[in-house]
Design goal:
Chain lengths: ~260, ~260, ~260
């Protein structure tokens, strides 16, 4: 058994996802196709990079992840195939590999150039179907990554806002994402906080100056409807409302400031 | 082949569902994962209970249903594994098993306590990934339910509004759910109606006092745009509009009254 | 391995899709179920016909496509099973087969009448579960299409707006669909345009009289935020905005006119 996962911004109303799955099943009849998400906001490369990074640790060696968030389709942007920690990613070189590339050991990286791995006819607007799906199918059938095309050592990397460690053991960051529950996911990791919490075990979390309280462990630790901060399941600091939506409650702007002090 | 189904309120924008699927595929490589729904309204335990109950009859023996609608994650609420009529459910003890427990024969029920069945590291906010997914994988690989933890005979049960059989053979209930088509699903079952219809074969259905007409068998029995009542595919009385949305047409309040008289 | 795909308007909030999948897995344990879409707009038969047509070429022989967009469920409308180019479709006879029937070689067509292929108890409102799912399962297990019921040569066909080839080599059509990205998909195919472009290689595309420019090959050929026209991955003329939504930009009415002149 081999797994091919899909992370796309195609939504599920159109024929795009169905076409990609058909190509994969046709070329790799033994592969299992796994829907991770097709609901990445259109063209939101950073969001796709984050989802890819945070599903990666849970998949077995040999899994092929196909990421089709590809606003530059048909332009000069390249398609890359990378192997990190025994798993593969097939994706446009537009930044979607940023976080996997930053955090996981790179084993091989190639540019998809050998057209024998593509569908015979390649459209200008749907490389997910015509290039990435057949490549994923062939990798899952055992094709060596060296057959993909020439090796490269260049990946386009998004510049991400990084948290600041300020004087007096204050850690300051921002909100990166809002999840389905309205939880606000910051760019401050458990690791980033280690030093602050060592020096200030009773540090409080602030969102745009409003105190949210100490760092809790789970949602039900505060009464229903009350805000709280915790380290979430991806090991990042998150601001939530127990039984509610922190996004609705706080409506943070794009440059919201999260501080732990 | 064994099936593991997923009923969650995670939506499909985030990494949550992808992480759960990865854990299952990693630990149970022969299992087939079936998406039932990830679009349960956040924290709507009753809706999940209803969906679980109404897919149950269609699955084969040995199927493992994982229900992750878990607002109390990390608190003292327990995780249960139950076997009913040859199928398994892995779910938090918050009421999501209510309808299966009421309607299907219980064969075994255990509290998930043996940490050897969990992931090595258990987060405080994502037991779907760290506890429920590995448990489901192990059950589908043939682990006995007795290895889950101590048996129990207690399940948290939601109190549901029950229909009233009133004098003069009037049956009165309320609206439980609105489905995707805007159909209004009541809490009055085919069985509840048997006596009323025996005494009053020409009984009419009323929604908040407005006559909807007799109980029909299918939507196209009335002209397009007209309302009707029928017994739906889950054997409950439903109010619909042929080719339209009864929810838009009637905009029923939470305490809407459905009568058959 | 055999594939059974699903195209429905059930959405993913309710139990409908889960019930269909259960029936299929129970009756065809070796089949792989592929979600194409459950998000067809309720009762939008034309949209389902289009999706079915444009995923078809990518699936292997023997695939069974189940289309449950069925507002007439329970009425006198028939359920058909067709084989076109080695693949099967199981669908109500309401027009969803229109485009497959128009474009692909018909090999066999039967009316689903033999009740031994249905579930023992057939509801009046959910033939997707009670008739189409078991039929698809049996076909994927190798049952001959001749066992479905009597052959027929009649399929209900939707009347589609067709583009006009006007004097002076002008091609005029309309917008059929808007996809997830807000791209406007017209009813003018690559083939329809061949003659116009031969006579007028520098022809421009107009939407309701507004010039969109020449036919490009990919989105990034114009600056971000600018409109463009191209032949899309289904070989139809499409109007888009690079990095944006043409639907938002132009808000075309239902009778919008697309011209190439």
């Amino acid at each position: 058994m081999s797994l091919i996962t899909l992370v796309t911004d195609f939504g599920t109303c159109d024929q795009y996802v169905g076409a990609i799955k058909g190509v994969i099943h046709q070329l790799a009849p033994k592969a299992t196709v796994v829907d991770i998400t097709h609901d990445i906001e259109p063209r939101n490369i950073l969001r796709a990079a984050f989802v890819l990074r945070h599903v990666w640790p849970w998949y077995p060696r040999g899994t092929v992840h196909v990421v089709v968030v590809d606003p530059g389709v048909g332009s000069a942007r390249q398609i890359l195939v990378g192997r990190y920690a025994g798993q593969y990613v097939v994706a446009p070189d537009n930044g979607v590999i940023t976080l996997v590339h930053r955090d996981l050991p790179l084993e091989a990286l190639c540019v998809a150039e050998d057209r024998r791995n593509f569908l015979p006819k390649v459209s200008a607007t749907f490389h997910g179907r015509d290039i990435m799906a057949p490549l994923a199918a062939k990798l899952s059938e055992g094709m060596s990554i060296t057959k993909v095309g020439p090796p490269t050592d260049h990946v386009k990397v998004l510049s991400l806002p990084t948290p600041d460690y300020r004087p007096e053991h204050v850690m300051a960051g921002t909100i990166l994402f809002v999840d389905r529950f309205g939880n606000l996911v910051s760019n401050i990791s458990r690791e980033d906080l280690a030093s602050t919490l060592r020096h200030r075990p009773s540090a409080q979390v602030y969102l745009d100056g409003v105190c949210i309280g100490p760092i809790r462990t789970h949602y039900a630790e505060v009464p229903s409807g009350k805000p709280l901060a915790l380290i979430d399941s991806t090991d990042y600091l998150e601001i939530a409302v127990n039984g509610g939506s922190a996004a609705e409650r706080f409506q943070p702007a794009g440059d919201a400031v999260v501080e732990v002090r």
